[in-house]
Design goal:
Distance between the termini: 6 Å
Largest sheet: 3 strands, antiparallel
Order of helices and strands: EEEEEE
Number of strands: 6
Shape: globular
Structural class: mainly beta
C-alpha cells in the first residue's frame, strides 16, 4: 500500500488548498475549516502506482480566509 499525508489548514473555500494530481488530473483536494487549526489528511495512492503524481499548494481565493496552511507532505510506502 502507498499513502501520502499532509497537514492542512486555513480557508475552507475552493480557492485555497492542497491538490493531488495524477497525470495532470485532480484526484483529491483538501482545505482548512476557516481557522488556523491544522489537521492531518491521508490519501491511498495505490490506484496511482506507475503514474506521475504532483502535490500542488495554491491560493486563488481573495476572501478573508483566502490563505492555505500546508506542512509535512510525506509519502508512505
Amino acid at each position: 500500500m502507498h499513502y501520502n499525508t499532509v497537514i492542512v489548514g486555513g480557508g475552507a473555500g475552493d480557492g485555497a488548498g492542497v491538490e493531488l494530481q495524477a497525470n495532470g488530473q485532480t484526484v483529491a483536494r483538501w482545505h482548512g475549516d476557516d481557522s488556523e487549526r491544522m489537521r492531518w489528511v491521508t490519501h491511498d495512492l495505490t490506484p496511482y502506482v506507475g503514474r506521475t503524481l504532483r502535490v500542488i499548494v495554491s491560493d486563488q481565493s481573495e476572501g478573508a480566509w483566502g490563505h492555505v496552511l500546508a506542512d509535512h507532505v510525506v509519502l508512505l510506502r
